[in-house]
Amino acid sequence: MPHSDPTADAFMRRILANPPDPVPRLVFADWLEESGASPNLAWARYIRLADELAAAPADDPRRPKMTQDLERVGSLVRARLTFRAEMFVAYPEAMLQLMPPRSMRVKVESVLVPRSLLDLVPHSLALYRNVLPLALVGRALVVALSEMNTQEATQMLTLVLNRDIVPFCAPERTIRSAVERNYGALEFDDFPPLTFESPARAAYPLALAPSPADPIDAAAPGVRFLNLLITEAINTGAEAVDLEPSADFVRVWFNRRGERTEHDPVHSRWLIPICTRIRVVAGLPLRAEEVSQVGVMPFTHRGLRYDLPVRLTSTPDGPFVRITITPAPENPPVALSQAA
After folding, report:
1. Domains parsed from the chain with CATH numbers
2. pLDDT tens digits, one per residue of 103-116
3. Which of 77-86, 204-213, 217-226, 271-280 has the lowest mean pLDDT?
4. What is the pTM of this model?
5. Are 271 and 313 in contact (CB under 8 A)?
Protein backbone atom coordinates (compact mmCIF):
# COMPACT_ATOMS: atom_id res chain seq x y z
CA MET A 1 0.00 0.00 0.00
CA PRO A 2 1.76 3.23 -1.07
CA HIS A 3 1.82 5.91 1.55
CA SER A 4 0.37 8.42 -0.95
CA ASP A 5 -2.88 6.48 -1.28
CA PRO A 6 -5.56 9.15 -0.57
CA THR A 7 -7.94 6.64 1.05
CA ALA A 8 -5.21 5.36 3.36
CA ASP A 9 -4.25 8.93 4.23
CA ALA A 10 -7.86 9.70 5.10
CA PHE A 11 -8.03 6.65 7.37
CA MET A 12 -4.79 7.68 9.08
CA ARG A 13 -6.05 11.22 9.74
CA ARG A 14 -9.18 9.80 11.33
CA ILE A 15 -7.16 7.39 13.49
CA LEU A 16 -4.78 10.11 14.68
CA ALA A 17 -7.66 12.46 15.50
CA ASN A 18 -8.50 10.18 18.44
CA PRO A 19 -5.90 7.39 18.81
CA PRO A 20 -7.50 5.65 21.86
CA ASP A 21 -10.68 4.94 19.84
CA PRO A 22 -10.22 1.42 18.40
CA VAL A 23 -13.04 1.70 15.86
CA PRO A 24 -11.16 3.71 13.18
CA ARG A 25 -8.19 1.32 13.48
CA LEU A 26 -10.40 -1.75 13.04
CA VAL A 27 -12.23 -0.19 10.09
CA PHE A 28 -8.82 0.57 8.58
CA ALA A 29 -7.88 -3.10 9.13
CA ASP A 30 -11.00 -4.13 7.17
CA TRP A 31 -9.94 -1.88 4.30
CA LEU A 32 -6.41 -3.27 4.34
CA GLU A 33 -7.75 -6.80 4.22
CA GLU A 34 -9.99 -6.01 1.27
CA SER A 35 -6.93 -4.89 -0.73
CA GLY A 36 -5.70 -8.50 -0.79
CA ALA A 37 -1.97 -7.63 -0.81
CA SER A 38 0.09 -9.83 1.53
CA PRO A 39 1.81 -6.96 3.42
CA ASN A 40 -1.59 -5.30 3.90
CA LEU A 41 -3.07 -8.56 5.18
CA ALA A 42 -0.23 -8.75 7.71
CA TRP A 43 -0.88 -5.16 8.81
CA ALA A 44 -4.60 -5.86 9.19
CA ARG A 45 -3.83 -8.97 11.24
CA TYR A 46 -1.41 -6.97 13.39
CA ILE A 47 -4.04 -4.34 14.21
CA ARG A 48 -6.60 -6.97 15.21
CA LEU A 49 -4.13 -8.98 17.29
CA ALA A 50 -2.94 -5.84 19.07
CA ASP A 51 -6.53 -4.91 19.88
CA GLU A 52 -7.22 -8.41 21.26
CA LEU A 53 -4.04 -8.36 23.34
CA ALA A 54 -4.87 -4.94 24.79
CA ALA A 55 -8.34 -6.16 25.80
CA ALA A 56 -7.12 -9.44 27.34
CA PRO A 57 -6.86 -9.54 31.17
CA ALA A 58 -3.37 -9.55 32.64
CA ASP A 59 -3.81 -13.15 33.84
CA ASP A 60 -5.20 -14.44 30.53
CA PRO A 61 -3.19 -17.61 29.71
CA ARG A 62 -3.40 -16.73 26.00
CA ARG A 63 -1.30 -13.58 26.38
CA PRO A 64 2.17 -15.16 25.81
CA LYS A 65 0.97 -16.84 22.59
CA MET A 66 -0.79 -13.65 21.45
CA THR A 67 2.39 -11.65 22.07
CA GLN A 68 4.45 -14.10 20.02
CA ASP A 69 1.91 -13.99 17.18
CA LEU A 70 1.92 -10.19 17.26
CA GLU A 71 5.71 -10.06 16.90
CA ARG A 72 5.67 -12.61 14.10
CA VAL A 73 2.93 -10.84 12.13
CA GLY A 74 4.54 -7.45 12.77
CA SER A 75 7.72 -8.62 11.04
CA LEU A 76 5.70 -9.06 7.83
CA VAL A 77 4.38 -5.49 7.72
CA ARG A 78 6.12 -3.53 4.95
CA ALA A 79 4.62 -0.07 5.43
CA ARG A 80 6.84 2.67 6.87
CA LEU A 81 5.30 5.81 8.36
CA THR A 82 6.60 8.82 10.29
CA PHE A 83 4.70 10.35 13.22
CA ARG A 84 5.24 13.27 15.54
CA ALA A 85 6.71 12.11 18.84
CA GLU A 86 3.94 13.96 20.67
CA MET A 87 1.56 11.16 19.63
CA PHE A 88 3.69 8.59 21.48
CA VAL A 89 3.98 10.78 24.58
CA ALA A 90 0.18 11.25 24.72
CA TYR A 91 -1.09 7.89 23.40
CA PRO A 92 1.66 5.24 23.64
CA GLU A 93 -0.63 2.20 23.94
CA ALA A 94 -2.80 3.26 21.02
CA MET A 95 0.17 3.99 18.76
CA LEU A 96 1.67 0.58 19.51
CA GLN A 97 -1.62 -0.99 18.41
CA LEU A 98 -1.52 0.80 15.05
CA MET A 99 1.60 -0.79 13.58
CA PRO A 100 4.83 -2.48 14.78
CA PRO A 101 7.53 -0.19 16.21
CA ARG A 102 10.04 -1.19 13.53
CA SER A 103 7.67 0.30 10.93
CA MET A 104 7.43 3.72 12.57
CA ARG A 105 9.82 6.66 12.70
CA VAL A 106 9.34 9.63 15.00
CA LYS A 107 9.84 13.36 14.60
CA VAL A 108 11.20 14.73 17.88
CA GLU A 109 11.93 18.31 16.83
CA SER A 110 9.19 19.88 18.99
CA VAL A 111 8.34 17.21 21.57
CA LEU A 112 8.22 18.12 25.27
CA VAL A 113 8.75 15.06 27.46
CA PRO A 114 7.24 14.97 31.00
CA ARG A 115 9.70 15.23 33.87
CA SER A 116 8.57 11.84 35.22
CA LEU A 117 9.85 10.19 32.03
CA LEU A 118 13.11 12.13 31.92
CA ASP A 119 13.81 10.90 35.44
CA LEU A 120 13.87 7.33 34.13
CA VAL A 121 16.91 7.94 31.91
CA PRO A 122 19.89 9.86 33.38
CA HIS A 123 20.93 12.88 31.33
CA SER A 124 24.45 11.51 30.90
CA LEU A 125 23.05 8.26 29.48
CA ALA A 126 20.70 10.14 27.16
CA LEU A 127 23.64 12.09 25.76
CA TYR A 128 26.02 9.15 25.63
CA ARG A 129 23.60 6.83 23.81
CA ASN A 130 21.59 9.51 21.99
CA VAL A 131 18.27 8.34 23.44
CA LEU A 132 15.10 10.24 24.36
CA PRO A 133 12.39 8.62 26.54
CA LEU A 134 8.87 9.11 25.19
CA ALA A 135 6.45 6.96 27.19
CA LEU A 136 6.10 4.19 29.75
CA VAL A 137 3.78 1.27 29.02
CA GLY A 138 3.80 -1.11 31.97
CA ARG A 139 7.47 -2.02 32.43
CA ALA A 140 8.30 -1.13 28.83
CA LEU A 141 9.99 2.19 28.12
CA VAL A 142 9.26 3.71 24.71
CA VAL A 143 12.28 5.63 23.41
CA ALA A 144 13.55 7.43 20.34
CA LEU A 145 16.95 6.16 19.16
CA SER A 146 19.28 6.91 16.31
CA GLU A 147 18.82 4.47 13.46
CA MET A 148 22.60 4.00 13.50
CA ASN A 149 22.76 2.15 16.84
CA THR A 150 19.25 0.85 17.56
CA GLN A 151 20.09 -2.80 18.30
CA GLU A 152 23.19 -2.14 20.42
CA ALA A 153 21.59 0.72 22.33
CA THR A 154 18.39 -1.26 22.96
CA GLN A 155 20.36 -4.13 24.50
CA MET A 156 22.40 -1.78 26.67
CA LEU A 157 19.33 0.19 27.85
CA THR A 158 17.51 -3.02 28.73
CA LEU A 159 20.44 -4.08 30.90
CA VAL A 160 21.14 -0.69 32.51
CA LEU A 161 17.55 0.44 33.14
CA ASN A 162 16.16 -3.05 33.90
CA ARG A 163 13.19 -2.43 31.60
CA ASP A 164 11.88 -3.69 28.32
CA ILE A 165 12.77 -1.15 25.64
CA VAL A 166 10.52 -0.28 22.70
CA PRO A 167 12.69 1.69 20.24
CA PHE A 168 11.57 4.06 17.50
CA CYS A 169 14.06 5.50 15.04
CA ALA A 170 14.77 9.20 14.51
CA PRO A 171 17.66 11.13 12.94
CA GLU A 172 20.62 11.39 15.31
CA ARG A 173 20.92 15.17 15.12
CA THR A 174 17.25 15.69 15.99
CA ILE A 175 17.46 13.37 18.99
CA ARG A 176 20.53 15.14 20.35
CA SER A 177 18.80 18.50 19.99
CA ALA A 178 15.66 17.15 21.68
CA VAL A 179 17.72 15.69 24.56
CA GLU A 180 19.41 19.04 25.17
CA ARG A 181 16.11 20.92 24.95
CA ASN A 182 14.15 18.59 27.25
CA TYR A 183 16.75 17.91 29.92
CA GLY A 184 18.07 21.47 29.94
CA ALA A 185 18.56 22.68 33.51
CA LEU A 186 17.55 19.28 34.95
CA GLU A 187 21.02 17.97 34.21
CA PHE A 188 22.24 15.96 37.23
CA ASP A 189 20.16 17.51 39.98
CA ASP A 190 17.72 14.75 40.76
CA PHE A 191 19.46 12.09 42.84
CA PRO A 192 17.67 11.32 46.12
CA PRO A 193 19.46 11.84 49.43
CA LEU A 194 20.88 8.68 50.97
CA THR A 195 22.87 8.07 54.15
CA PHE A 196 26.64 8.30 54.32
CA GLU A 197 28.87 7.76 57.36
CA SER A 198 31.97 9.78 58.13
CA PRO A 199 35.33 8.32 59.24
CA ALA A 200 34.34 9.30 62.79
CA ARG A 201 31.39 6.87 62.44
CA ALA A 202 28.83 9.63 62.83
CA ALA A 203 25.90 8.87 60.52
CA TYR A 204 24.17 11.87 58.95
CA PRO A 205 21.73 12.52 56.10
CA LEU A 206 23.24 13.67 52.84
CA ALA A 207 21.15 16.82 52.91
CA LEU A 208 23.51 18.11 55.61
CA ALA A 209 27.16 18.95 55.16
CA PRO A 210 29.22 16.51 57.28
CA SER A 211 31.73 19.03 58.58
CA PRO A 212 33.17 22.46 57.76
CA ALA A 213 36.38 20.71 56.70
CA ASP A 214 34.64 18.81 53.93
CA PRO A 215 35.39 20.72 50.71
CA ILE A 216 32.54 19.02 48.80
CA ASP A 217 28.92 19.85 49.60
CA ALA A 218 27.19 16.63 50.66
CA ALA A 219 24.14 17.61 48.61
CA ALA A 220 26.19 18.05 45.43
CA PRO A 221 25.04 15.92 42.49
CA GLY A 222 28.35 14.03 42.26
CA VAL A 223 28.15 13.05 45.92
CA ARG A 224 24.56 11.91 45.60
CA PHE A 225 25.44 9.91 42.50
CA LEU A 226 28.27 8.14 44.35
CA ASN A 227 25.94 7.16 47.18
CA LEU A 228 23.23 6.05 44.77
CA LEU A 229 25.79 3.96 42.89
CA ILE A 230 27.04 2.21 46.03
CA THR A 231 23.49 1.56 47.18
CA GLU A 232 22.59 -0.01 43.84
CA ALA A 233 25.75 -2.12 43.94
CA ILE A 234 24.84 -3.45 47.39
CA ASN A 235 21.21 -4.10 46.43
CA THR A 236 22.13 -5.97 43.23
CA GLY A 237 24.88 -8.10 44.74
CA ALA A 238 27.83 -6.51 42.97
CA GLU A 239 31.25 -7.40 44.31
CA ALA A 240 32.97 -4.22 43.09
CA VAL A 241 32.31 -0.98 41.24
CA ASP A 242 34.85 0.49 38.80
CA LEU A 243 34.90 4.09 37.58
CA GLU A 244 36.98 4.21 34.39
CA PRO A 245 37.76 7.76 33.19
CA SER A 246 38.06 8.91 29.59
CA ALA A 247 38.28 12.33 27.98
CA ASP A 248 34.52 13.05 28.02
CA PHE A 249 32.83 10.37 30.14
CA VAL A 250 33.44 8.16 33.12
CA ARG A 251 32.45 4.59 32.34
CA VAL A 252 30.84 2.73 35.24
CA TRP A 253 31.25 -1.02 35.64
CA PHE A 254 29.63 -3.47 38.06
CA ASN A 255 31.54 -6.68 38.79
CA ARG A 256 29.37 -9.68 39.63
CA ARG A 257 30.55 -13.28 39.88
CA GLY A 258 33.49 -12.70 37.59
CA GLU A 259 31.49 -10.82 34.96
CA ARG A 260 31.89 -7.10 34.24
CA THR A 261 28.68 -5.25 33.31
CA GLU A 262 28.59 -1.66 32.11
CA HIS A 263 26.31 0.76 33.95
CA ASP A 264 25.20 4.14 32.58
CA PRO A 265 28.19 6.53 32.24
CA VAL A 266 28.55 9.96 33.83
CA HIS A 267 30.13 13.14 32.55
CA SER A 268 33.86 13.47 33.20
CA ARG A 269 33.35 16.65 35.22
CA TRP A 270 31.92 14.48 38.00
CA LEU A 271 35.19 12.63 38.50
CA ILE A 272 36.92 15.23 40.66
CA PRO A 273 33.98 15.70 43.10
CA ILE A 274 33.52 11.92 43.33
CA CYS A 275 37.21 11.28 44.02
CA THR A 276 37.40 14.15 46.49
CA ARG A 277 34.39 12.75 48.34
CA ILE A 278 35.98 9.29 48.48
CA ARG A 279 39.23 10.75 49.82
CA VAL A 280 37.43 12.77 52.48
CA VAL A 281 35.32 9.87 53.74
CA ALA A 282 38.19 7.37 53.54
CA GLY A 283 40.59 9.76 55.29
CA LEU A 284 43.00 9.95 52.34
CA PRO A 285 45.09 13.02 51.40
CA LEU A 286 43.19 15.33 49.07
CA ARG A 287 46.32 15.95 47.03
CA ALA A 288 47.53 12.59 45.83
CA GLU A 289 51.32 12.30 45.72
CA GLU A 290 51.31 8.56 45.01
CA VAL A 291 50.32 6.78 41.81
CA SER A 292 47.85 4.73 43.85
CA GLN A 293 45.84 5.55 46.98
CA VAL A 294 44.26 2.83 49.10
CA GLY A 295 41.81 3.29 51.95
CA VAL A 296 38.52 2.22 53.52
CA MET A 297 35.31 4.18 53.04
CA PRO A 298 32.61 3.69 55.70
CA PHE A 299 29.07 3.53 54.34
CA THR A 300 25.72 3.03 56.08
CA HIS A 301 22.88 1.29 54.26
CA ARG A 302 19.61 0.16 55.84
CA GLY A 303 21.06 0.50 59.31
CA LEU A 304 24.16 -1.56 58.56
CA ARG A 305 27.71 -0.27 58.41
CA TYR A 306 29.88 -1.32 55.49
CA ASP A 307 33.63 -0.73 55.40
CA LEU A 308 34.34 -0.54 51.67
CA PRO A 309 37.96 -0.85 50.46
CA VAL A 310 38.74 1.79 47.82
CA ARG A 311 41.65 2.22 45.43
CA LEU A 312 42.36 5.30 43.29
CA THR A 313 44.96 4.76 40.55
CA SER A 314 46.31 7.63 38.46
CA THR A 315 45.68 7.57 34.68
CA PRO A 316 46.14 10.27 32.00
CA ASP A 317 42.38 11.02 32.13
CA GLY A 318 42.10 11.05 35.92
CA PRO A 319 41.92 8.51 38.75
CA PHE A 320 40.65 5.02 38.01
CA VAL A 321 38.47 4.12 41.00
CA ARG A 322 37.65 0.68 42.37
CA ILE A 323 35.19 0.34 45.25
CA THR A 324 35.03 -3.19 46.66
CA ILE A 325 31.64 -4.14 48.10
CA THR A 326 32.22 -6.11 51.28
CA PRO A 327 29.68 -8.66 52.59
CA ALA A 328 26.84 -7.33 54.71
CA PRO A 329 27.87 -6.96 58.36
CA GLU A 330 26.18 -9.13 60.93
CA ASN A 331 25.45 -6.32 63.40
CA PRO A 332 24.04 -2.83 62.80
CA PRO A 333 26.17 0.18 63.71
CA VAL A 334 25.90 1.61 67.20
CA ALA A 335 23.62 4.63 67.33
CA LEU A 336 25.21 7.93 68.28
CA SER A 337 23.09 8.22 71.41
CA GLN A 338 24.22 4.77 72.53
CA ALA A 339 27.84 5.45 71.66
CA ALA A 340 27.78 8.54 73.79
Report:
1. 1-79 (no CATH), 108-191 (3.30.300.160), 221-327 (3.30.450.90)
2. 999 999 999 999 88
3. 204-213
4. 0.56
5. no
